[in-house]
Amino acid sequence: MRTLWQRLTVLLLLAALSACTTLVRPPTVTAPSARSAPLAQAAWARVLQTFVNDQGEVDFLALSRERADLDIYVSFVAQADLQRMTEGTGQDERLAHMINAYNALSMFNVLESGIPDTHAGWRKVRFFALRDLTIGGTQMSLYKFENDVIRPYTRRRADPRVHFALNCSAVSCPVLPRVPFTGAELEMQLEKETRAFFAVPTNFRIDSANRTVWLSEILKFYPEDFVPVPAPSLLAYVLTYALKYALTNSPTFASAPLVPQDIASFDVRFTPYNWTVANSRRAR
């Protein structure tokens, strides 16, 4: 019930602030690559390979000086029709495109916002809800794209792994991969990113002494995507990955203690989200 009221409060706030919305126009790109899916996707691949490091941080200053490839892909996203993209087991071009589009538009929005230091406080509302971008010919905010387009699509599939692939350019977001998501490899990529997410201590940590499990606030933001389908509780969903993959395969957890047998009785708390922009040049 609390989550419902929080969501209603957000919607009412957005409605009240709708008059303050700014349209962030897509780049004007005349090159044929902005209208060709393979060429635009190749441009996006170059952006990820050139300006993103292994920690998922972006060199926004360098990108701002060499943004031709990002502009090509954002221009393509502005025109590409989501409904015409194919979907199906192991070949989901539509969802792969939506993930890439969200990640690219978040990056683009950082540049167009003047490369802020953080999304915290009021800036979060402005960045995610009060700046409309063009997606498939429709103007919408990142908030609306995620909650009115992407999440309903993935909830029909009872698959919340998309939350570990969407990158909002903040430090606590899932790590931005250095390669694009593709329809042919989407299942493998979503599985990989979900495993990697829960291998990070700030996203899943057991405090046995205080009988507490610490989880990423992402699960607190969207509990209805995880419970009761596909899991009976947030902790049960996390343990599906943490036990099977993170604790056994990740070097991060090579020396981690065994998961207590009575972990289901532990308190679940959430690590505060760090909204600092994941800029590779930020002061540490």
What structural keywords apply?
2 domains, mainly alpha, 10 helices, 3-stranded mixed β-sheet, single chain, 284 residues, globular
| Global Rg | 19 Å
Strand content: 5-15%
Q: What is the tally of beta strands?
A: 6
Number of helices: 10
Terminal-residue CA separation: 39 Å
User: Could you spell the SSE succession in H and E letters?
Assistant: HEHHHHHEEHHEEHHE
Shape: globular
- Provide the spatial order of strands within the biggest beta sheet: 1-2-3
What is the mean predicted local confidence, pLDDT?
Answer: 90
Low-confidence stretches: 253-257
- Please outline the major beta sheet: 3 strands, mixed
Estimated helix fraction: 40-55%
Structural class: mainly alpha
